[in-house]
Design brief:
Length: 336
Amino acid sequence: MQLAGIKLIGTGRYLPQRTVSNEDFTRFLDTSDEWITTRTGIRQRQISNGEPTWYMGLKAAERAIEDAGIDPQEIDMLISTSVTPDYAFPAQSNLLLERLGIRGAFGIDIQCACTGFVFGVDMARRYLATQEDVNTVLIVSAENITKFADYADRSTCVLFGDAAGAAVVQRGENPAYSFFETQGEGAELMYAHLVPPGNPFSDPEQVERYAELFPKGEGHYMYMNGSEVYKYATRALPDAVERVCAKAGIAPEEIDLIVPHQANLRILQTAAKNLGLPMEKFSINIDRYGNTSSACIPVTLSELRESGRLREGDRVLLAGFGAGLITGAVLFEVER
């Protein structure tokens, strides 16, 4: 059964005011602007100066609602995506609904790493297509990913920035297509620990035994096997594009715009080459923001919409990949 598509009616973004350049890292790391830029494509990133994740999400959501030109009370569902929420509970979607003053809607949090927004769009599409009382969905992707960065590790800390992006979607007239895949065998390639199990009745040796399943990483800092994740991403991104295009019955060259997860410029260049597509088809802002996890794609969408680059009838493909290992893509047509 082919479900109805989506109509993007509003977008918004929030970037912390603090800008950190590559040169700033040279004060405490053995690195250089050239070393970072040539390996990643990143020149600067915005980093939280204390703004919590929910606050960044709130500001992006407010701007998306304003851009959509709707009353917040018209929102029926709020989907929050983040790997860096401020609280274990309540859910971040609950906090956002309360701060936005929305009554009568329901919220849900999803944690799908850097692919979170793509999952959120597809989840919104399915609710809109199957639930008569869901007509408008707000998707908010907010990330304070730098709090998991080890600033003694030059190979990872230079990659990340903080940001939030949001989108308001409604039921569309044209079909949309999606593809998702999880390769759980790669879970150990990138992870970060939370509070470990422990209580007055725990056996410390038993707790330690389970901890050995994912032994790397200092404290709560993220661990990433960069070379293996890179290899995965260069395969997964073009595969996701081809698979979702196959579902739509089109060739990749018929896509007007690809909005990818901004992990590394070389990954995007390799994917474009493997697909036989020009880089002009890819919307890229990694040089300014770095990797902001699930916020990458909605921040980029917000910039595209603001600049008028999302034209009616354009085929737009959102493509994410990240820890899990997870890949996801959604293909839709811009409607007015």
